[in-house]
Amino acid sequence: MEILPILSDSYTLGFIGAGKMAESIAKGASRSGVLPSSRIVTAHSNPSRRAAFESIGITVLSSNDDVVRASNVVVFSVKPQLVKDVVLKLKPLLTKDKLLVSVAAGIKLKDLQEWAGHGRFIRVMPNTPAAVGQAASAVVLAGGGHSANGVVAQGSQSEGDSNNTTIFVGGLDSEISDEDLRQPFLQYGDVVSVKIPIGKGCGFVQLADRKNAEEAIQGLNGTVIGKQTVRLSWGRSPGNKHNGNHYGGQGYGGHGYGGHGYAARQNQDIAMQQPAAAIQGAS
Questions:
Q1: Domain 163-253, CATH 3.40.50.300 — does that match?
Q2: What is the pTM of this model?
Q3: Which residue ranges make up each domain of the chain?
Q4: What tens digit of pLDDT does each residue of 29-86 get?
Q5: How confident is the model over 176-226, as pLDDT tens digits?
Q6: Does domain 13-156+264-278 correspond to CATH entry 3.40.50.720?
Q7: CA-CA-CA-CA torsion sign (30, 34, 40, 46)
């Protein structure tokens, strides 16, 4: 089957799961002008949840099946423990011409790919200011992720690198210090180094042991460090260094954190950018 580009001026965004996270992202997208609410759909049986979306002009359909059929980009915003069952149930409708996005914490890309039956998946960890369009989101792309112009993104090598012990921490408040960031990680093992790039709203923590780093991601993702809820995922392995500014091989500079399936932007929610922008810097 030929994978056609997603037209950025006409695609429809669908949310599987109409909870607070989906509502925040949808509001941020429509209010910022990234995507009109008339091109956003979801489904929910609860009258109050339906009303919350309908009040901002979003169409609420009768079932998740209808949402998938109506959408070019499908965002799975259900609780992590429900993701597998939901994706498997919808699998017959998750054709390769659709771009799939997961905002569930702790779910690996390889599992999302397996459940969906293809690799056109993006994993996004938005932080709390998404509703006002000021979020910085870490984006991990599977090997089959395609942009609107058909470009194939590189796979998430950092996640699959068994030697990588560097963790990306997104959603940090501006007042947090290196020591503030270090403390929560000490319970998981020896911390090799901590770096907080100035003005980026994120940090990088390198542990000495891979297993300890995995446990830290599982244990601290979605918790409060400093004043804000943080989102954790793999940073770049120290062996993968780029020219220019870098920390542990995880490049940083400007608004993007490029390479090996990673990207982060401030002042806009990257999940709600036109599909091409969602993989900018990762191809």
A1: no
A2: 0.54
A3: 13-156+264-278, 163-253
A4: 888 777 889 999 999 999 999 999 999 999 999 999 999 999 999 999 998 899 999 9
A5: 999 999 999 999 899 999 999 988 889 999 999 999 998 898 888 888 888
A6: yes
A7: negative
